[in-house]
């Protein structure tokens, strides 16, 4: 049993200019690695020369898609397993330097319809992963994928990390428990852990095949298919966005920085856009689609949080992160990707 | 299936002088009703003329003790069942006007040793209870037993409800998820719910038979048995206390008050005492026992929160609650109770 990582974590700020080189030849586990963010992160890690193992359950509807890693499939180890299974997780964490822990049920609507499955995946399996590390690889570092949904309806804007956590759906509650387990294991058991609370993230490899994983996914597919984008309410709710390469850059930065252990950071975007403006950008980029405003479906209205945008100042100060790809560029790259690969994202 | 409560909830503040009479002939379910607080609450409810059903799993070591309700056993319905069992819970919630939801795993140390059991009881079973109400009795009101442990290590004192929730143990994380489910079901599904975050509560019927349910329990038993009370650290950490009758009074008050729905309230005490001072009071009251200061055991030190006391101003303003029994009186009543009943609390 290999329990001591020799990963050369950077022990004091700032990150050196060549910090990305630290990933070369290192063993990295990406849970949920066939999903949207996990696959983009794995692509970057392979470019950096890391030895990547992906664990993914490929549960239908959850975002895992083997096509996401088509370009690197011969250079990574793909292990199909459910993070709820403590036996496979106990084996998989061994020998890893860093775990990017992205496996999760991410649909807010699904969490309200089936709260127990969300609990199993977003609470219980996180404990399984952390217990596996405690017992089998206590020198590892884990970076957890949190979400702005944990804050619930903002009490002030921009939301910083001092904002109360008052989730408006079961998914937000369980993601919060999962995050807090990580911070607890960092503080009590010495398992290095950092959480990044992501905002609306978009880009190539986002799940498009159903409409329960966020409005950008729905808007993109509708525009590409020349349909009508239906906006709930007034379309005036504000959001910030991150292009996926910016999000994965944040994960890679905190992964090597010792002073981020035990901390929680917001991601966030510089452009604050209304939902209607985001739809219009997507329509313009795709050169297709049209817009209509419709009343909120009851099921969605009840967990809606109004306007949200976050402050990423704490993360910027910690590791020098800021988003580099603006919405025009990001949506162009996204539309270009789906033009070429659409068949792998709309069929079952 | 009986789904509509006719309970005459008070719709606007303040509570009328005779609010306790509202419980007469009403159907009340107390989960964890054979435990410390649940049994004291049930005793009061029987005095008020309520029809009380207790559900308790009697899991060894968890605080349930049939002797706690010896005096009222012929006037209540005792149903042995585990709140993790969705089938019995679905049946038991039917026809109830109010549910006092006190079932839980309460040991912080046990939650660190066996986080999965704590998760099952404090997260999963809470979802079971709420789903049972949503499907079978959506007019019920639920009062949830939260804990000051949810706040973790205080960032300021006294701690009010605006303080960040940053638990330092698995129990605190799971109790927080359980609480937030209640608030969510109130806001989204219209199941009336209020949470009371209790502080150190003591009094007759506190579990004494093992040392993992709080320091007051340990101090009481040690003094009664003429032993040496070991205080960890310096004994200077501050705490506030509630005598159990004051705590149950808070539950009864919010139970009838419509304007508390969806809200979270701290309980708290007027006397802020050091742990050493509490030990000395207990020794003086018992007329037995002695004090020693010892280093923190590692397992306890890692989840210790330092000094804590809370503000109960919000609850006072909402329902006129304040604690009435001071520590001298409370410990006297407690010691008197155990002098008469000790055999039922120290044997298995």
TrEMBL record, chains A, B:
<feature type="domain" description="NAD-dependent epimerase/dehydratase">
    <location>
        <begin position="28"/>
        <end position="268"/>
    </location>
</feature>
<dbReference type="Pfam" id="PF01370">
    <property type="entry name" value="Epimerase"/>
</dbReference>
<protein>
    <submittedName>
        <fullName>NAD-dependent epimerase/dehydratase family protein</fullName>
    </submittedName>
</protein>
<comment type="similarity">
    <text>Belongs to the NAD(P)-dependent epimerase/dehydratase family.</text>
</comment>
<dbReference type="InterPro" id="IPR036291">
    <property type="entry name" value="NAD(P)-bd_dom_sf"/>
</dbReference>
<dbReference type="InterPro" id="IPR001509">
    <property type="entry name" value="Epimerase_deHydtase"/>
</dbReference>
């Amino acid at each position: 049993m290999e329990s001591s990582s020799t990963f050369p974590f950077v022990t004091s700020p700032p990150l050196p200019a060549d910090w990305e080189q630290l990933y070369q030849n290192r063993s990295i586990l990406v849970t949920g690695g066939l999903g949207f963010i996990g696959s983009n992160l794995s692509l970057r890690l392979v470019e950096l020369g890391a030895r990547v193992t992906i664990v993914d359950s490929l549960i239908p509807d959850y975002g895992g898609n083997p096509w996401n890693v088509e370009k690197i499939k011969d250079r990574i180890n793909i292990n199909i397993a459910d993070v709820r299974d403590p036996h496979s997780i106990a084996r998989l964490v061994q020998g890893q330097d860093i775990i990017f822990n992205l496996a999760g049920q991410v649909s807010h609507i699904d969490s309200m319809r089936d709260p127990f499955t969300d609990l199993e995946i977003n609470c219980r399996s996180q404990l399984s992963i952390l217990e596996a590390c405690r017992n089998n690889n206590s020198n590892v570092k884990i970076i957890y994928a949190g979400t702005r949904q944990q804050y619930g309806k903002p009490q002030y804007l921009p939301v910083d990390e001092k904002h109360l956590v008052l989730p408006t759906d079961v998914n937000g509650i369980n993601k919060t428990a999962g995050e807090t387990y990580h911070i607890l294991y960092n503080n009590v058991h010495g398992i290095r852990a950092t959480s990044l609370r992501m905002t609306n993230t978009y880009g190539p490899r986002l799940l498009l095949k159903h409409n329960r994983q966020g409005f950008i996914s729905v808007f993109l597919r509708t525009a590409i298919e020349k349909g009508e984008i239906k906006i709930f309410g007034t379309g005036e709710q504000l959001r910030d966005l991150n292009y996926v390469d910016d999000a994965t850059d944040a994960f890679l930065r905190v992964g090597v920085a010792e002073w981020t252990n035990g901390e929680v950071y917001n991601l966030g975007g510089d452009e604050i856009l209304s939902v209607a403006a985001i739809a219009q950008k997507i329509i313009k980029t795709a050169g297709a689609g049209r817009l209509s405003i419709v009343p909120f479906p009851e099921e969605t209205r009840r967990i809606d949080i109004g306007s949200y945008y976050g402050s990423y100042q704490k993360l910027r100060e910690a590791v020098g992160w800021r988003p580099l790809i603006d919405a025009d560029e990001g949506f162009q790259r996204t539309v270009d990707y789906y033009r070429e690969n659409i068949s792998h994202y709309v069929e079952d």
